[in-house]
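Q: Predict the bound structure with NAP.
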Amino acid sequence: MGGTGEGRQLAEILAADPAYAPLLSFAGRTASLQAPRAPYRVGGFGGVAGLAEFLRAERPAALIDATHPFAAQMSSHAVLAAQLTATPLLRVECPAWRAASGDRWTNVADMPAAAAALGERPRRVFLSVGRLEIDAFRAAPQHDYLVRAVDEFAPGLPRARVLAARGPFAVAAERELLERERIEVVVSKNAGTPATYAKIVAARALGLPVILVARPLLPPAETVDSFAPALAWLAALARRTGAEDGGAPRASDHPAREPRGV
Ligand code: NAP
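A: Predicted complex:
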């Protein structure tokens, strides 16, 4: 389950390895999906029951949750559906960003708190929280928003412009953007992803305050912080499965030869 750079990277590495047959799943939120170099599917599963049914039908050797840390519903569904179907589950989630020297962060619990933290005085705001989170900022229409999102959309805020762009972003370009737009405050999710960290570094360099929205709580699951340990986890799983079968990994652990996926 993807929707992140880590998920794409992992699926592409697995697709290049004949021992695996990955299937990368996208929710289908963006209008302009960049096709990965790996087999993929698009669209929701239909809740926990739908995902469990999918797992029973496809019988993957493992389910990898490489969704964004804020995709809390999908991650919760993954835990429940994996339990229901006894599918080994691994979550790939990079650690939250931690404030470094020079950072001027205000940590808030959610989007309404971020909107409130902007204050009464109109400010020039770089809003980098995703299209689906804009509604909360209707409570603070006095600010000038530069909203960055993957696709162009109508933000429905009186003083907002949309900048359609897809990461990863470089520090120099982010700094130039913040300066050119005379941004006074940055609002971001604490995504933890390297691909979107540049705006945090740029804000630090310019001495700008950042309002950082904390991650939602997720149900516990075995977790690694990047694709590399996920590969090691999969290899260990394949070895265990092979050992339980009394020898080398089965053909069914080489799903390229059988209709099993990871
Ligand atoms: P969400 O609230 O956790 O999930 C809502 C529903 O979308 C899920 O119940 C599921 O529908 C479907 N869904 C989510 N991820 C899916 C996936 N990888 N494959 C198939 N169906 C999926 O998720 P979200 O926050 O809307 O995020 C949607 C996608 O965008 C995720 O893949 C996530 O990795 C990516 N993304 C999210 C953010 C963010 O800030 N939230 C940022 C960057 C990328 P059903 O119940 O019908 O199965």
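A: The first strand starts at residue 24 and ends at 26.
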